[in-house]
């Protein structure tokens, strides 16, 4: 028979992975993280819910951090919603966006709009600074992984540019 | 076209604001103590939070970490107060053994005569002719002792407040991150990122102010101890130097009046230790200015310490931790002092720093409202 008293005392000893950690595990920024690292990051993460059509952030708005899609879907656009909307990307569960705001104080370069009712995880510049102070090794791990992700994206952009130039010249 | 609507909105907001102020003024007397306790608890939490977090990472239990930090803190405070009281009482017993009431009155009389004789002639003529300085000094001391008795009630109240602050601090330390997350969760999506930035900036402003204050208090304590030992080297015969230094450092936390409060224990000890000592009585600062019982030496030493702390150490260690103009600091101190006395002075600067951060963010939101 289970005793609530003993379960309370030993709660966390046999803890199963939370949904948040399962989502974080899909994100390359948290590659090679131990369970302890994930529980540290989980403390910093903020859960936010958005309804379909809600702006998560607007183009040129001051940016504070990145978001990871736990449930739902988000589109990244430039232009206004009504007329000249240009969709740059459509993101689903496990995808992330807005990570540039972790590195600079520049305003957002696009809109992010929820296309379904969504639950997002937010990791912010200030939280990263706090983590850097509290656990520098973990902070460095995140920054290195972020660097890798940005490098991959830059490489992808370069390839696209080269491809476009090749197509133009043909 | 929007003007009438804006006027209505403005009038509506002013009325709501006035009602809020009126309501606050009505309930303030009932909640002021609780607010004060919460503010104290928040400040203590800010100071202790990093230690609790660090310990939690090591041992993996928040509750045990809070317990360990609280026990260490209480132990240190208890040890300090206990040994201070025991040394002080020992000092007082020695003093009372050495001096009886008549001798004390005689000493005051001699001191009064020495002061009078060291004054220029025109000032000596302005002294009252009854020569009863000793009696007046004794009266003052008696009235001080009398008012000490009336402080007993206040001490009881102090212990109640201290216990409540202690309990609030433990709860805040244990649940700080949970409270913070709940606060963040309550922010509407539209203002989410701005709200997070605001909370972070407030925390940063308060913690950098506190860190600065503790560093400057520690430096004042260290320099005061060094200065007192130096005075002892020249024969000042001061005891309890470490305690006097720590008290001076702590008193330094209260701006403007604190540094002067810090001098008082040193002056009292100098007086108690040197009474009846003719050499100390005839001591002259730099061999020129009469400084009985090394009193002027002590004052000069503390003034030097404060100048070093204020002009060299604080700017170097702390910088502009809160980033307030000195004029604003003075006004804040006056307002804080008027509302809450010395406690108000203690909180005036960080509270103004927090208000500055909030106003900056409000102005930022107003400018960028179309982007949120």
Summarize the structure.
The complex is a heterodimer of chains A (170) and B (372). With 170 residues, chain A is an alpha+beta fold.
Overview of this structure, please?
- The complex is a heterodimer of chains A (170) and B (372).
- With 170 residues, chain A is an alpha+beta fold.
- Chain A has a single domain (18-169), classed as Jelly Rolls (Sandwich), CATH 2.60.120.10.
- Chain A has helices spanning 4-9, 19-25, 35-44, 125-134, 136-169; strands at 46-50, 55-57, 65-71, 74-78, 86-91, 96-97, 111-114, 118-124.
- In chain A, the strands form 2 sheets. Chain A has a 4-stranded antiparallel β-sheet with strand order 1-8-3-6. A 4-stranded antiparallel β-sheet of chain A has the order 2-7-4-5, with no helix packed on it.
- In chain A, helix 4 crosses helix 5 (136-169).
- Chain B has a domain at 35-125 and 157-186.
- Chain B has 372 residues and is mainly alpha-helical.
- Chain B is elongated.
- Chain B has helices spanning 3-59, 62-98, 101-118, 121-126, 133-185, 192-233, 241-251, 258-274, 278-281, 295-317, 326-340, 342-367; strands spanning 284-285, 289-290.
- The longest helix of chain B has 57 residues, at 3-59.
- In chain B, strands 1-2 form a two-stranded antiparallel ribbon.
- Helices cover 83% and strands 1% of the residues of chain B.
- The model of chain B has no long low-confidence stretch (mean pLDDT 78).
- Chain B contains 12 helices and 2 strands; from the N terminus they run αααααααααββααα.
- Chain A binds chain B through residues 40, 43, 46-48, 50, 54, 56-58, 60-65, 107, 122, 124, 126, 134-135, and chain B through 50, 53-54, 57, 177, 181, 184-185, 189, 192-194, 196-197, 200, 364, 368, 371-372.
């Amino acid at each position: 028979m289970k005793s609530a008293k003993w379960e309370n005392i030993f709660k966390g000893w046999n803890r199963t992975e939370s949904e948040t950690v399962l989502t974080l595990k899909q994100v390359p920024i948290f590659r090679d993280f131990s369970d302890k690292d994930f529980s540290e990051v989980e403390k910093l993460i903020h859960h936010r819910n958005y309804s379909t059509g809600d702006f998560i952030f607007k183009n040129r708005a001051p940016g504070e951090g990145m978001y990871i899609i736990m449930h739902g879907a988000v589109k990244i656009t430039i232009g206004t919603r009504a007329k000249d909307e240009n969709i740059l990307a459509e993101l689903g569960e496990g995808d992330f966006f807005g990570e540039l705001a972790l590195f600079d104080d520049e305003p957002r370069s696009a809109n992010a709009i929820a296309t379904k009712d969504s639950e997002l995880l937010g990791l912010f510049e200030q939280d990263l600074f706090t983590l850097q102070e509290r656990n520098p090794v973990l902070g460095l791990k995140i920054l290195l992984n972020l660097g890798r992700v940005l490098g991959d994206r830059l490489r992808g952009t370069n390839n696209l540019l080269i491809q476009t130039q090749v197509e133009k010249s043909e | 076209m929007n003007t009438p609507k804006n006027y209505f909105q403005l009038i509506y907001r002013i009325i709501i604001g006035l009602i809020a102020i009126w309501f606050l003024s009505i309930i303030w007397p009932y909640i002021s103590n609780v607010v004060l306790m919460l503010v104290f608890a928040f400040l203590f939490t800010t100071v202790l939070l990093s230690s609790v977090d660090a310990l939690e990472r090591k041992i993996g239990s928040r509750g045990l970490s809070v317990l360990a930090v609280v026990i260490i803190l209480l132990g240190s405070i208890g040890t300090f107060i206990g040994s201070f009281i025991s040394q002080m009482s020992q000092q007082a017993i020695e003093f009372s053994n050495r001096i009886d009431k008549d001798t004390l009155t005689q000493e005051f009389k001699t001191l009064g005569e020495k002061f009078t004789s060291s004054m220029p002639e025109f000032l000596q003529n302005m002294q009252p002719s009854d020569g009863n300085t000793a009696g007046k000094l004794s009266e003052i001391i008696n009235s001080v002792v009398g008012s000490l008795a009336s402080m007993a009630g206040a001490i009881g109240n102090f212990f109640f407040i201290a216990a409540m602050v202690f309990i609030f601090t433990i709860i805040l330390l244990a649940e700080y991150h949970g409270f913070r997350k709940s606060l963040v969760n309550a922010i509407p999506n539209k203002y989410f990122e701005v709200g997070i930035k605001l909370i972070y900036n407030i925390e940063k402003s308060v913690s950098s102010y506190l860190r600065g204050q503790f560093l400057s208090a520690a430096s004042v304590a260290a320099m005061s101890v060094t200065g007192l030992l130096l005075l002892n080297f020249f024969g000042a015969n001061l005891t309890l130097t470490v305690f006097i230094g720590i008290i001076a450092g702590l008193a330094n936390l209260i701006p403007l009046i604190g540094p002067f409060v810090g001098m008082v224990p040193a002056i009292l000890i100098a007086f108690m230790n040197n009474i009846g000592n003719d050499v100390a009585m005839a001591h002259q600062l730099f061999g020129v200015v009469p400084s009985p019982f090394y009193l002027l030496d002590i004052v000069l030493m503390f003034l030097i310490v404060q100048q070093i702390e204020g002009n060299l150490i604080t700017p170097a260690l702390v910088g502009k931790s809160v980033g307030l103009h000195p004029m604003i600091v003075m006004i804040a101190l006056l307002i804080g002092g008027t509302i809450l006395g010395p406690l108000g002075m203690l909180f005036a600067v960080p509270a103004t720093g927090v208000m500055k951060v909030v106003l900056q963010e409000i102005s930022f939101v107003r400018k960028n409202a179309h982007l949120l």
